[in-house]
Specification:
This protein is mostly helical and 188 residues long. The protein has one domain. It has 7 helices and no strands. α1 packs across α7 and α3 packs across α7. The protein is extended.
Amino acid sequence: MTANTFEAQVRVRWLDTESWSWFVGIGAALALLGLLASANLLLTAIAATYVLGAAMFAGGILMLVHGFGVRRWGWAVFWALSALLYLAAAAAVLKEPLLAASVIVLILAASVGASGLVRIVVAVGARTHGWGWMLASGLISVAAAFLIAIGWPANAVWVLGFILAFDLVFQGTMLMLVGFTLKGQRAA
């Protein structure tokens, strides 16, 4: 190991331990947002759906601008049509956020279930060290997808909010734990 490599490693380690407070602060903010989101799962789901609709609307506008910008290609009509479809989808999401949340939850259930099935097949096929954990993870994902699907559409209004709140709390908790670990390394 050269002196420059060692020096760079020491600097990176110092920067990581010096930034512990950022991890803790941002983690606490995310966890707090997750707790606030969990207070009203319906409102959280609607807010998340409105954010998605707004992003789709902005994307549709940008695609429309792009369609006019590349009109010399001869494909401008197709770009514009794509943009208009995107804008129509955004309008539908913004007009009916509960229906949009319901569809998102159904797609989420299908994705989680498919992901679980893939993990089950890989775990059973590979049977390498730790394959049981992968099998368990796949079975839990399939069970979660099944529970979401059998409760759909009634559960759609709270499942999306719950997933967002859950993710924010655990993401924030993870960042705080990393920050406290970095603080402990700094003192050592």
